[in-house]
Each structure stands twice: as C-alpha cells, then as structure tokens.
Design brief:
alpha+beta, four-stranded antiparallel β-sheet, globular
Length: about 140
C-alpha cells in the first residue's frame, strides 16, 4: 500500500554532517521517493503542536529546546509501506537497543538526541504533514 510520511532529520543529524548519509539510505529503498525536502529552523509554536501529546512529561521541555538548537531537514517520503519502513530504518529511540544497520544503531549516541523523527502511523503522518508541509496535503 502506497503511503506518505514525514521525516525530520534532527539538529544533531545536521550538526554531525549525517544528512547525506541518512537521505541516501532513504533514497536507496527501491520503492520510496522523496517528494519534498527542506532545511529549516523550527519555531516553538510548530514544535508545541508537533509534540502536543508529550506536554507535561519530564522530557518535553528538553526535547523542545533540543529541536530549537539548530536547523532540521524536513522530508516527505512516499512509497510502499513507507511509514513502517522508515521507522524500522530509524531503529528504536535508544541507540544501544537499535540494531546495527539502522540509523540510530549506526550513528546514535544518546536517547534524547536521536537523529531522526518518523511518523508512527498513518494518522500521525497525516497530522504532521499538514503541520510541516501544508501545501502538499
């Protein structure tokens, strides 16, 4: 089933020069296509909407501050089972638990700065795409 998902390469990925490596891994998947890509500095308002379900949790404010710390690369990726696939490619949030070959398994250092965000469901993808790429939805 063809899908569309949001991927964010977080400030640590940009800062560490991993954008090309991560984008390359996405591009090498046979049936996936990047239909939008943009380097941008996010503001607090968009982050508050994006992370609304985490308000009140201990990691919320440090996460927002981290996401404000530098530019991100926002991508729209289309393809067969791309939502599940990109999440598998990213690996678990904890880099120690992430398998070698996954983005976090190969490049992750700490849980909070985990290189990549990928929508976790079709519903989340739809909501997040409207937020980050309203002209494409």
């Amino acid at each position: 089933m063809s899908q569309r998902t949001l991927v964010l390469l977080k400030p640590d990925a940009v800062r560490r020069g991993l954008v090309g490596e991560i984008v390359g891994r996405i591009e090498r998947k046979a049936d996936w296509r990047i239909s939008a890509l943009e380097l941008r500095h996010l503001d607090r308002a968009i982050l508050e909407q994006h992370y609304a379900e985490h308000v009140g949790r201990p990691f919320y404010e440090p996460l927002v501050e981290f996401m404000l710390s530098g530019p991100v690369v926002a991508l729209v990726v289309d393809g067969e089972r791309v939502i599940e696939g990109v999440r598998r490619l990213a690996g678990p949030t904890d880099p120690i638990a992430a398998a070698p070959g996954s983005i976090r398994g190969d490049f992750g250092v700490i849980v909070r700065e985990n290189l990549i965000h990928a929508s976790d469901s079709a519903e989340s993808a739809e909501r997040e795409l409207k937020l980050f790429f309203p002209g494409l939805v």
